[in-house]
């Protein structure tokens, strides 16, 4: 093994490890790749110009443009109109609801990218489930899987398709057409949907009870307590911030009531007076310790229902906020971004993975998929609903949507697809034209264009794409392909295709779809060439496998998005996804061999 090959393999292993343990966000990890490649230029052969080529890649630009176009369609409210139709058409028929959720989300995902589709469908699905007395958990994993499969229907359905198209174009001299693999994806989607509709439900536990009060779902009623400050209390005269620091116990203040006035966040600078009432969150042990030494008195009523809590807070409502992948909140604490003060809201609980936390909420590092229970007034709720950094789980709300732009935004979307499909314009130019059209027609405001782009994905791709250059320069892909050649004569060609599918799926389930495409596609194409097999068939296998990470919540963005709202545990995805993963691992390579030949 040559030194350059060894260095690139080492870098690949290092990156995968860093993506799994994630000491910092993965996009920042990816940005270290161009730096390392240039530092190691004598062995990698990567020039500074090649190291930054990811920023000018047509794949990166196309994906950024499609984020904007998807947001323009989203802001029109068309998906919410579909949600209303689903509720009116299905009534309480749970199977019919599931069928429509799966097929509508899947086909829409093929048109406007599957990630925003799931973000838009989560509130709608939660509302449908609650109205039908069905656990939302039963619907949200199928929603994510349907969007993943639906994203394969077209070239623009998922970002990894666009990245794969760029790599295939460089290696084979021609990329995928807009509907290159639609027929294959349609078969896989139908078979996968049959599994989700008729079989998956038995593997999905009802983690969240239907119509469960938020205070019960987050176990808030066990932690909320109302206390009164006595005249001889040692914290009288302190600010709330000083008092919390001096108490040094796990408590948070939700509300201050003084002379019939009610105060919410920000409370840190409020001076505590005798007779003040505080609604606090605290575990029993911390509360007892505070009461013992601070001259506080617990009121007789210490548990609140959701209705009582909202009544006490006047115009404030309890809402669930989901932190999606790419949100500026991911990897930060509420304190880091001054969230409570910026949005004039109060945090009552945070659910991450299987744990619900009620105290020291401002210091919890939030991960994608985290769910926050907040109190929010009308203005705050409106700000949160229209911000792509958050998903508000609740009923359908048309406020803030430009319903008069539905026809215009859809026309722009279909024009982008048609121009690229008919080879009138390259997809990157067609997509950029769509961005301009969205702004000129008022479907998006100019400043919304910048907010629409998921910069985490852009930086991730920009950092990783030069790794493909290093693999070519050093012969890493060729070396890996030569090792696979040893299987020639031992395994049938279609079995090698299945092997590539499984390897790509394995990486995707650990570090995501885009990373797996960038790492595996050059190797698969080189291996096909050395084996004398059809390289397009191998490229398609890797492309499909990258979007089939059904086993973990971290393998695909949409899985992370439903993880928190569904109240799932990590292993739930493995139980539900394993049969589907097995089905696709054999179905897709066999169909590729049948349709494209080996």
Automatic annotation (TrEMBL):
GO biological process: potassium ion transport
Family matches, as Gene3D superfamilies: Regulator of K+ conductance, C-terminal domain
Pfam families: CitMHS (PF03600), TrkA_C (PF02080)
Membrane topology (UniProt): Multi-pass membrane protein
UniProt keyword list: Membrane, Repeat, Transmembrane, Transmembrane helix, Transport
Protein name as it appears in the record: Di-and tricarboxylate transporter
GO MF term list: monoatomic cation transmembrane transporter activity
Organism: Halarsenatibacter silvermanii
Domain RCK C-terminal stretches: 211-296, 306-390
Region forming the signal peptide: none
Segments passing through the bilayer: 6-39, 51-73, 98-122, 143-164, 184-204, 412-440, 452-472, 484-504, 536-556, 576-596
